[in-house]
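Design review, sub-item: ligand-bound model
Attendees: FS, YL, KQ
YL presented the inputs for the magnesium ion complex:
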Amino acid sequence: MNDALLELSKVSKIYGDLHALDEVDLTVGRGEWVSIVGPSGSGKTTMMNIIGCMDHPTSGTVVLDNRDISEFSSFDLTQVRRETIGLIFQQFHLIPHLTAIENVMVSQYYHSMPDEQEARNALERVGLGDRATHLPRQLSGGEQQRVCVARALINSPKIVLADEPTGNLDANNEHIVLDIFGELHDEGTTLIVVTHDATVAAKAQREIRLDHGKVVEEIIHNDAPQVSSVLKEEK
Ligand SMILES: Nc1ncnc2c1ncn2[C@@H]1O[C@H](COP(=O)(O)OP(=O)(O)OP(=O)(O)O)[C@@H](O)[C@H]1O
Ligand SMILES: [Mg+2]
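KQ shared the predicted structure:
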């Protein structure tokens, strides 16, 4: 089995004459924690949408967990997403008429089977055990974001993709989310985190900078937690 969980080769996304992504090459190893930084409009979300099986590249190949998904149908992409990926967005995308625990259980439903106790445990893990029956509008922004984290990790995805996961959070909530990312990393989960926050970016082992749709810089953070080879093999 290939040690890379994700391999982008010459991936472009072109809108008219705009190259939102311009021949991007990127390899992410199993269990690696990578941050993606870059100015507004540099292509970060575009790249996450392609990795997250929500969009196709215009050209280039995307290999995720040993499968070339570049030309998968939308139906097949949805399957891969449900099986493999946990998504955290800046705009929370919680279902407004469902409670916190029901929002987590929807994700279980699409993956396999809803399990209320497991969903409750996930909410407890993000410090929201006492908010399980609140609707999104009855939760603060930080709490809603933590429900999203619980929803993303409930099915033990191989890879967690987060687009500005701490953008709307105060320092305390940011700390909670980063601690959970650290735990996921320790458990062998691969993390790709888009952020404008230098502190959040530096938590990753590797920081990739995009500009005008191209990878322009790569920084290794030696002080960040390293991949555990034992755990890595289990994923
Ligand atoms: N559906 C679309 N149609 C046309 N242009 C698009 C579309 N989606 C994105 N773009 C353009 O592609 C470029 C990259 O957008 P993207 O959302 O990836 O940027 P970003 O790096 O995530 O920025 P931000 O930090 O502001 O979130 C932008 O110039 C944007 O306007
Ligand atoms: Mg974006």
